[in-house]
Amino acid sequence: MAGGVERVLTLKANYFADIYGYDITIITTDGKQRANFFSLSENVKVINLNINFEEMWHRSILSRLCLYIIKERKFKKQLSKELYRIKPDFTISLLRREINFLTDINDGSKKIGEIHINRAHYRNFTPNRSNPVKVLFSRYWMSGLVKKVKQLDRFVVLTEYDRQAWQEIPRVDVIPNPLPFYPKVISPVRKKRVIAVGRYFDEKGYDLLLQSWSIVEKANPEWELVIFGEGNRPFYERLSSSLGLDQNRCILNDSISDVEKEYLQSSLFVCTSRFEGFGMGIIEAMACGLPVVAFDCLWGPRSIITDGEDGLLVENGNVEKMASTLIMLMQNPDKMISMGCNARKNVQRFNIDVIAEKWKKLFDSL
Question: What is the pLDDT of residues 151-163, one digit of tens each?
Answer without folding.
Answer: 999 999 999 999 9
